[in-house]
């Protein structure tokens, strides 16, 4: 009985002994979970260097961290098998098998330290080293126990790859260099994925004594340490003998390389607006390099004319990604203000906004390409624009006016479209300065009287390449879908493209008149007032490229213009980045159609229109009124007197067709002594008096104040525009006749101080008045 009791007791104790390890493990695990919740691992925020990459993940630029360290994060895909094997072999061969603490290493370290009476081994795993790098503490036994617990926590919350990544990113490499990436770039000028085995071995060694083993400080000692570990790797067959042999024979670099600084203006811009430590831009390294090379060579020519700088932006029309970004010709050129970002600088656009105006006018049904307009002097309430070449063309088609970038037709068109409508349209597609100042802008805005940037203008022209749909530019791969809006219809965008593709135009540089390598693009130039800015923006189906030339301080140069100084670089860049096969060209969209129009007016022909041409139009939108370039009048048999219906005799008259000329065109014909067919004088005995078509006073502005220097006999000029058929003009000052004159004749008078009513009447009895004030100073 006694023996039986003993056997039962013995059996129960044996079962408890077998369960003891499991009970210990479970209780320890529960205690760990409790401590992990009560004392969570306070992983500090690591201050990383901001690193800017190109679209192919190659490095563009890097910046010091907030604590002035070169600490660049290595991504998991950059940790090559060789890099991983080398670090694990040297630092922690059981890394993938222990829970953060290696108990065998701990026991061995304790035994060695007791046996030798001093600390000879710390038994640190890679995880424990990460804890020490994240949360440094004095090297004591108490700190070691805390370090072990934190290592278990780290293993509980992160996987092995993430821990290895942290370790590789935080290792010290001397001075202010931390992490494998910063070390490989500074010491070898290579990305981590491009490192050789010899370089990897050096990177495993340097953290043991970072300042003493730097390649630029003690290369020979580093070589000995490197070879020692390479031989150990060879003996363990970690790599093939041939690879080990090549690594042992590889020389050591003795210099410290600077971090690359490509696309610096974009890099600084992205650094300031992105919170992430890694920024993947849309820059195409190949295109960026070509743009930089061409611009560096080209700016030498500009500087011989005292034109100090340039800026370039290249946009992929299909993705709206910015593939090249050059803020200035040289970021480090302090003498030329190279750190100014010309892509974002606010400048006057000159004539570069005209295509947007014409596109809006096409959509409003105001014009078609072949419609005839006038290019003659005109007074817009005191604003008298002139053409760039200071000459006038008289009658000209809309497409010629835009292709030749004439100023007066554009101002006249803007008055019809409306400055508020035009400014609002531009504001909706990203023109920030115009949007915030739209209420202050006048007719001069279409000639450059406003502020824009190269970025805004390039996005605008990319909209013409995208059938009138504007998209915001993309600078970062991870940015959300580009914002979009509509600047014009597909038909209007196509008409603008066709006009801007013409080669018979003044902004084609002389050296390209017969050039075989002229790119097939649509382009427009702009030159700001005072010749401070020269612009050229061009596009095809693949790319839109914007070029600015000028001086950042804003000083003008007499020779500067967009045609001679921006267009050559624009053409060179297109030829350099365009694929071997020519891109397809734009095709007319469904909302466009053809029609016959009279060549004299560009309007649908009437029965008297004998010369007709084909013209594009937007059905249901474009003007549909019949041609009126000839008007029917009644004249006597000899053609010396004209009649109206009020004075038409019963017999002795006939019908005659006479050209219709706007008053401004008649005045210009008279001034330039260009002959034109005039209407005979009206019947002097006509009982009717016309009140429509009164002369338009053009020399003085209604309601204006004119300052006259006292003591000088200064004169004011009187001039007007009168309709065809007017034979005589009568000028009145305060209702007193001054003198009679011919319609195109200029009359002068010497004013006294005070208010004046100025009246102008023609021989048909039509009259117009204005009021001015004269003040002596």
From TrEMBL:
Recorded GO molecular functions are: carboxypeptidase activity; penicillin binding; peptidoglycan glycosyltransferase activity
This protein's record includes keyword Oxidoreductase: no
Task: Name the keywords, alphabetized.
Answer: Carboxypeptidase, Glycosyltransferase, Hydrolase, Multifunctional enzyme, Protease, Transferase
Q: Name one GO biological process term.
A: peptidoglycan biosynthetic process
Q: Where is the Penicillin-binding protein transpeptidase domain?
A: 311-539
Q: Which domain of life is it from?
A: Bacteria
Listed InterPro entries:
Beta-lactam/transpept-like, Glyco_trans_51, Glycosyltr_51/Transpeptidase, Lysozyme-like_dom_sf, PBP_1c, PBP_C, PBP_transglycosylase, PCN-bd_Tpept
List the pathway annotation.
Answer: Cell wall biogenesis; peptidoglycan biosynthesis
Quote the Pfam families the UniProt record gives.
BiPBP_C, Transgly, Transpeptidase
Identify the stretch annotated as signal peptide in this record: none
Glycosyl transferase family domain segment(s): 62-233
Q: Which GO terms describe its cellular component?
A: outer membrane-bounded periplasmic space
Q: Reaction(s) catalyzed by this protein?
A: [GlcNAc-(1->4)-Mur2Ac(oyl-L-Ala-gamma-D-Glu-L-Lys-D-Ala-D-Ala)](n)-di-trans,octa-cis-undecaprenyl diphosphate + beta-D-GlcNAc-(1->4)-Mur2Ac(oyl-L-Ala-gamma-D-Glu-L-Lys-D-Ala-D-Ala)-di-trans,octa-cis-undecaprenyl diphosphate = [GlcNAc-(1->4)-Mur2Ac(oyl-L-Ala-gamma-D-Glu-L-Lys-D-Ala-D-Ala)](n+1)-di-trans,octa-cis-undecaprenyl diphosphate + di-trans,octa-cis-undecaprenyl diphosphate + H(+)
Domain Penicillin-binding C-terminal: from-to ranges: 693-772
Q: What is its EC number?
A: 2.4.99.28
Q: What family name appears in the similarity comment?
A: In the C-terminal section; belongs to the transpeptidase family.
Its name, as the record gives it, is peptidoglycan glycosyltransferase
The species this protein was found in: Lentimicrobium saccharophilum
């Amino acid at each position: 009985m006694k023996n039986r009791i003993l056997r039962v007791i013995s059996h129960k104790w044996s079962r408890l002994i077998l369960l003891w390890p499991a009970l210990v493990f479970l209780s320890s695990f529960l205690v760990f979970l409790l401590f992990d919740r009560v004392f969570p691992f306070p992983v500090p925020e690591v201050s990383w260097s901001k690193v800017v990459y190109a679209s192919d993940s190659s490095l563009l630029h890097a910046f010091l961290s907030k604590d002035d360290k070169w600490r660049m994060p290595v991504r998991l895909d950059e940790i090559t098998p060789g890099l991983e094997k080398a670090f694990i072999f040297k630092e922690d061969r059981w890394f993938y098998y222990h829970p953060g603490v290696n108990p065998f290493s701990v026991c061995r370290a304790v035994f060695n330290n007791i046996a030798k009476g001093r600390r000879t081994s710390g038994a640190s795993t890679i995880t424990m080293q990460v804890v020490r790098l994240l949360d440094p503490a004095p090297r004591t036994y108490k700190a070691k126990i805390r370090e072990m617990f934190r290592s278990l926590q780290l293993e509980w919350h992160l996987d092995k790859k993430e821990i290895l990544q942290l370790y590789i990113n935080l290792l010290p490499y001397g001075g202010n260099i931390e992490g494998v990436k910063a070390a490989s770039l500074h010491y070898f000028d290579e990305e981590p994925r491009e490192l050789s085995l010899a370089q990897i071995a050096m990177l495993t060694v340097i953290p043991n004594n970072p300042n003493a083993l730097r390649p630029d400080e003690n290369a020979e000692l580093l070589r000995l340490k490197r070879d020692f570990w390479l031989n150990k790797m060879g003996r363990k067959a970690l790599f093939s003998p041939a690879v080990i042999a090549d690594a042992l024979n590889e020389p050591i670099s003795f210099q410290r390389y600077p971090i690359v600084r490509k696309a610096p203006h974009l890099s600084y811009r992205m650094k300031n607006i992105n919170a992430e430590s890694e920024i993947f831009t849309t820059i195409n390294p190949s295109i960026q390099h070509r743009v930089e090379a061409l611009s560096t060579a080209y700016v030498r020519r500009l500087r011989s004319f005292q034109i100090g700088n340039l800026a370039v932006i290249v946009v992929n029309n299909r993705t709206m990604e910015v593939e090249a970004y050059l803020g200035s010709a040289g970021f480090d050129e302090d003498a030329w203000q190279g750190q100014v970002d010309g892509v974002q600088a606010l400048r006057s656009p000159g004539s570069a906004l005209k295509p947007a105006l014409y596109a809006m006018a096409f959509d409003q049904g105001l014009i078609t390409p072949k419609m005839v307009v006038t290019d003659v002097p005109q007074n817009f309430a005191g604003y008298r624009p002139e053409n760039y070449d200071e000459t006038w063309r008289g009658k000209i088609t809309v497409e010629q006016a835009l292709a030749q970038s004439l100023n007066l037709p554009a101002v006249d068109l803007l008055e019809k479209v409306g400055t508020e409508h035009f400014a609002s349209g531009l504001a909706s597609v990203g023109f920030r300065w115009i949007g915030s100042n739209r209420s202050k802008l006048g007719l001069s805005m279409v000639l450059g009287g406003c502020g824009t940037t190269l970025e805004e203008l390039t996005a605008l022209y990319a909209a013409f390449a995208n059938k009138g749909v504007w998209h915001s530019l993309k600078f970062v791969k991870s940015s959300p879908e580009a914002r979009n809006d509509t600047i014009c219809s597909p038909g209007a965008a196509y008409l603008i493209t066709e006009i801007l593709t013409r080669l018979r135009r003044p902004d084609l540089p002389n050296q390209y008149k017969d050039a075989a390598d002229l790119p097939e693009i649509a382009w427009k130039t702009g030159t700001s007032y005072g010749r401070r800015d020269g612009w050229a923006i061009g596009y095809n189906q693949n790319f839109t490229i914007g070029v600015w030339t000028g001086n950042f301080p804003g000083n003008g140069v007499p020779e500067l213009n967009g045609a001679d100084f921006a267009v050559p670089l624009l053409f060179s860049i297109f030829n350099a980045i365009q694929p071997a096969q020519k891109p397809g060209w734009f095709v007319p969209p469904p909302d466009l159609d053809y029609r016959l129009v009279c060549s004299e007016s560009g309007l649908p022909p009437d029965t008297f229109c004998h010369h007709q041409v084909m013209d594009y139009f937007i059905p249901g939108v474009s003007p549909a009124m019949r041609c009126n370039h000839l008007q029917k009048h009644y004249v006597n048999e000899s053609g010396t007197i004209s009649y109206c219906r009020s004075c038409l005799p019963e017999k002795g008259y006939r019908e005659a067709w006479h050209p219709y000329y706007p008053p401004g065109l008649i005045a210009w014909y008279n001034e330039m002594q260009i002959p034109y067919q005039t209407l005979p004088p009206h019947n002097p005995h006509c009982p009717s008096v016309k009140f429509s078509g009164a002369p338009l006073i053009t020399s003085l502005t209604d309601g204006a104040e004119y300052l006259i220097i006292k003591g000088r006999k200064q004169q004011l000029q009187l001039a007007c525009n009168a309709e065809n058929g007017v034979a005589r003009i009568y000028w009145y000052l305060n209702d007193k006749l001054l003198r009679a004159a011919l319609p195109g004749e200029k009359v002068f008078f010497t004013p006294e101080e005070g208010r004046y009513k100025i009246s102008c009447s023609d021989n048909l009895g039509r009259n117009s008045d204005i009021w001015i004030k004269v003040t002596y100073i």
